[in-house]
Amino acid sequence: MSIPEAHPTLKQLRSRYRLLVMNDDTYEEVVTFKLTRLRVYAALCTLFVLLTGLTVALVVFTPLKMYIPGYGNASNAKELRVLKIRTDSLEQSMRYKDKYIENIKNVLQGKVMVNLDTIPLNIPVPEKIND
């Protein structure tokens, strides 16, 4: 029985690489890193999770959350609804008053057109009660 060989992809993930940072003028090695693809993937995933966690924490635990649409406490939402209702009623009241003032101007300037009701009415004659 022979030991099965590792999958080629797994072999590539465990292959060792060396990253050298050299000074261009003196060709002196400044920093050396011994890497594998698996370690690079793990480091990038860890970095991604940390940055995501920090971003979420920054938004949740600071006043930045107020800039997210729909986020806020219930009292603010209730107050906003009350203000919207009040604004709508004030706008309606203003329209009624504007219409009233326009009608008064028309009456004072004599621009009023009165439509007379010309439909004949058949009013029954009341019966007399004899004693």
Structure overview:
With 131 residues, the protein is mostly helical. Among the domains are: 7-47, no CATH class; 68-110. Helices cover 51% and strands 11% of the residues. Strands 1-2 form a two-stranded antiparallel sheet. Strand 1 and strand 2 (29-36) form a beta hairpin. The longest helix is centred in the last third of the chain and has 36 residues, at 74-109. The radius of gyration is 43 Å and the shape is rod-shaped.
What is the ordering of alpha helices and beta strands?
HEEHH
> What's the total number of strands?
2
CA-atom Rg in angstroms: 43 Å
- Strand-pairing-aware structural class: mainly alpha
Helix content estimate: 40-55%
Q: What's the overall average pLDDT, rounded?
A: 86
The share of residues in extended strands comes to 5-15%
- Shape category: rod-shaped
Contiguous low-pLDDT stretches (5 residues minimum) are none
How far is it from the N-terminal to the C-terminal residue, by CA? 134 Å
Largest sheet: 2 strands, antiparallel
The largest beta-sheet arranges its strands as: 1-2
